[in-house]
Design a protein that fits this description.
alpha/beta; 3-stranded antiparallel sheet; 27 helices; 50% helix; binds zinc ion; elongated
């Protein structure tokens, strides 16, 4: 239908896979036939006047007839089937459909023995009494029905198919392969775990988990094998445990089916019970022991009957093993939830959330062991919201692309696995059994090259500056993307409105000063300004000259970073508002390494006390140093701005981010500032042609900012980890 009225669409090539219209038309065509079948079943039982509960279930062309059988009268069932198929054929012909019998299968009731005289030609008969396991059941929409052996074999074969992707994945860039593994391959058993009882899946799913973990290790260059350093069993099991936590809990998001298998079938059946299907309501009474086993397993997966989520009864009743078979618990639970929350209850998701949280708590509680180091404890305790981008980021963005080695180093660091091998010689061995190398550089005295990269900054003097540069480049790019023009190493003379000449600046703000002498010089600058601003007179000129003569001349404190002996900020990001004197952000950033030997004890104590990472020693120290360095300059600049000598309003931030991705308040403010700049450029631009609303764009930009920061950090870390123990700093 359209403006032209009704139009006939001729189908020349038939429906294609994925065509919704085709499926709809098919369903429309066969609906009558399925209804006729139901009528036939209703009146063909042993008593034609009583419906015996036989029914039709169909999903498109997958049609399932469930027929009540009587053990004492096998022939009656076979007659009924023969009639039913005749009826189907007749109606199908009328519709122009070809009903192919060769796909039709009949699963006999439990313990019925073929032969089956009187059945139509071509109908394949399956029964649990047959010797061949393959013939002990049937597959209904991807779900095995039949003997336990049949179901187990089905599940194993199905999951085994997935493993064949190993060689294909290994051809890919490891970042790409890992993403596919986490998002697609490891998600494959989702359906099977829901529709098959854990008694038939648990074992196969556990093996599947083992395989997924070994895939991941292979993408990361291997452990032990492939000439990489060995990791002790405790280390490997901790790394795996961490990888199997969801990203929001600090894991890599690799699924743990062993964990899920315990409740997936239970929650799936519970959700179906809530749907109030009359056929299921009759059938579920027969689940018997299966339902009880699943109930017990589901309770255990949540943490036993004493877990608050069980005692509160919001997910599962604590004392009702018949909840799946007879109780109305889930019907009411789903209804109440939908009424209160206006959204349907997703039971499996809720279970997953609880079990994942339990697993995360378990990992943190096991913090003692031969393998467990302070660096690892700190890694587990620092909760960074941005590092999960390593595993979840959309790889079509340029900033997310890491080189092969960068990615491998990053993930090994993330999972606390041994770092990549550098030397061909026999490595040393730690107490726990892990292999480790020692630095060969002459000034390092065989220091240990640990996975956390703690030696890197000591190994190469200029490494800190190179790491900071990578971050700075990314910050610049962010601001340019937001529509602004960043000013790298902005001139201090301009910041102070050109009131001071170069020599005066070098005398007043040479850098490398203690807090006290920096304050002293700021005091001189202030006095000088006061004198300058008085009415021109001889006294004024004399006073100015006298203050200038007091300016200190020592410049020894200048660091290599200070151009011309004057301190400078790293970046200036100028906004657009207010138009007469726009705000300008001057910033000086830093990356701190919280696991380094000099901090780790204090950081760990800080984190174990439950305090946030960004208030710990390395952050405080970095902020303090910067405040000392720039304090005087800031005071003078602020005064000049207040008195209207500058054409802009400067403000100052010292954003600090740590190796593990924790940010201080100034870093968050910086991101907000860049995002604000982006909003301003959106305001002045016209609507986009693709119709994406501006509010959505702002949200996407925020994700971009955090992602870009995360990957800048990963590159910086990879640089450090890759360089330690080598003679030169080398980009991986
Ligand atoms: Zn170890
Ligand atoms: Zn070294």
């Amino acid at each position: 239908m359209g403006r032209a009225g009704t139009r006939l669409l001729r189908s020349r090539e038939g429906a294609r896979i994925g065509c919704k219209l085709g499926s709809f038309a098919f369903a429309l065509t066969v609906q009558d036939m399925y209804l006729t079948m139901q009528e036939f079943l209703d009146c063909s039982g042993s008593d034609p006047n009583i419906q015996d509960g036989s029914f039709v279930k169909a999903a498109m062309d997958d049609c399932l007839l469930v027929i009540r059988a009587d053990k004492s009268d096998e022939k009656a069932l076979y007659d009924r089937i023969a009639w039913g198929i005749k009826l189907l054929n007749k109606h199908a012909k009328r519709l122009g459909l070809n009903f192919a019998n060769d796909k039709a299968q009949l699963l006999l009731p439990q313990d019925w023995v073929p032969p089956t005289a009187g059945l139509p030609e071509g109908l394949v008969v399956r029964s649990n009494t047959l010797l061949n396991v393959e013939q002990q059941g049937i597959e209904v929409v991807g779900c095995p029905v039949g003997s336990i052996d049949f179901r187990q074999t089905f599940v194993q074969r199905n999951l085994g198919d997935v493993l064949r992707s190993r060689d294909d994945l290994k051809q890919l860039h490891p970042q790409c392969a890992t993403r596919l593994l986490l998002q697609c391959v490891s998600a494959c058993p989702a359906y099977i775990a829901q529709v098959v009882h854990p008694s038939a899946t648990k074992e196969a799913l556990t093996t599947f988990d083992d395989n997924m973990w070994s895939f991941l290790l292979e993408f990361l260059g291997g452990i032990g094998g492939d000439n990489q350093l060995k990791c002790c069993p405790e280390g490997l099991s901790r790394a795996r445990f961490r990888a199997q936590l969801p990203c929001r809990l600090g894991g890599a998001g690799l699924r743990s089916w062993e964990r899920t298998a315990d409740f997936a079938w239970f929650t799936s059946v519970a959700s179906c019970v809530a749907e109030s299907d009359p056929n299921l309501d009759v059938g579920r009474a027969h689940f018997g022991a299966l339902a009880h086993i699943a109930y017990e397993a589901a309770i255990d997966s949540l943490g036993g009957t004493s877990h608050p989520k069980v005692t509160s009864g919001e997910l599962i009743p604590g004392d009702d093993p018949d909840v799946l078979t007879v109780s109305n618990f889930y019907k009411e639970l789903f209804m109440d939830y939908a009424r209160v929350n206006k959204t349907p209850l997703r039971l499996q998701k809720e279970f997953s959330a609880v079990t994942a949280q339990n697993a995360a708590d378990e990992l943190l509680s096991k913090s003692e062991g031969a393998h467990v180091s302070d660096s690892e404890r700190i890694t587990l305790l620092s909760k960074s919201p941005i590092m999960s981008h390593l595993f979840t980021a959309d790889l079509s963005n340029i900033e997310t692309r890491l080189s092969k080695t960068e990615f491998i180093i990053s993930v090994r660091h993330f999972l606390c696995l041994p770092s990549l091998r550098i030397y061909p010689d026999e490595p040393d061995r730690l107490m726990c059994g892990c292999e480790v190398e020692s630095c060969d550089n002459s000034h390092c005295e065989r220091a240990t090259l640990d996975w956390a990269g703690n030696h890197a900054l000591l190994c190469h003097k200029g490494l800190g500056a190179q790491k900071a540069l990578l971050l700075e480049l990314e910050l610049e790019r962010m601001f340019r993307k937001a529509g602004g023009s960043p000013d790298r190493q902005p001139s201090t003379r301009n910041l102070l409105g050109k009131v001071f000449d170069r020599e005066e600046l070098a005398a007043l703000f040479p850098g490398g000063l203690s807090q006290a002498s920096s304050n002293l010089r700021a005091g001189f600058a202030m006095e000088y300004l006061t004198a300058l601003h008085t009415r021109p007179s001889r006294e004024r000129d004399e006073k100015v000259a006298r203050i200038k003569s007091l300016f200190p001349t020592t410049r020894s404190g200048a660091t290599p970073k200070d151009i011309g002996g004057v301190i400078r900020f790293d970046l200036c990001l100028t906004g657009t508002q207010p138009t007469d004197a726009p705000r300008a952000l001057y910033l000086d950033h830093a990356i701190v390494h919280e696991t380094s030997d000099s901090y780790q004890v204090r950081v760990l104590r800080h984190l174990q006390a439950g305090r946030t990472a960004c208030l710990s020693v390395p952050f405080k120290k970095a902020e303090g140093e910067k405040k000392g360095r720039f304090g005087g300059l800031i005071k003078v600049a602020e005064r000049l701005a207040r008195e209207g000598f500058l054409g802009f309003s400067p403000f100052f931030l010292f954003p600090v981010v740590s190796t593990l991705g924790c940010m201080n308040v100034d870093m968050t403010k910086l991101l907000n500032w860049i995002q604000e700049r982006y909003k301003q450029s959106l305001l002045s631009s016209s609507e986009r042609l693709d119709g994406v609303p501006k509010s959505v764009l702002v949200g996407k930009f925020r994700v971009y900012l955090e992602r870009a920061l995360c990957f800048a950090l990963l590159r910086a870390n990879a640089l450090a980890l890759h360089s330690q123990g080598r003679p030169d700093v080398l980009r991986p």
